[in-house]
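Before we proceed, please read the two lines closing this message. Let me know whether the structure tokens fit the sequence:

…
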Amino acid sequence: AGVIATIAEKTVSVAAGADWTSTEIRVQRGQRIVISAVGEVDLGDNKRTGPEGLSIADKDKLVADRPTGALIAVIGDDNNEFVFVGQSTEFVAKHNGILFLSINEGNLRDNNGAFVARVKVLSNK
């Protein structure tokens, strides 16, 4: 059992109206990523939600089987292995690349507000 070291730690504001927000953290395959989020956003029509999202239909959202408006992540800009984050998640990176965060919704244009996401990248070398 090795010591788990924190390689990077950053707090990022994820605007609900933005396409993808770069954390500017470059992760390597195999690193463990821990993300937790707080805050509330408006998805339009006064539908307000926290990072866990709402169970409303949206055929255009990127993660079809997860709540609309929830916080999601992806590594790099050339793959679509989207990761559901919600209020918090921990996962192992399958790719090398910059970590991006966004909102699980098809139409972001009428959104307001932002989630505040705390991102930690851990190594267990």
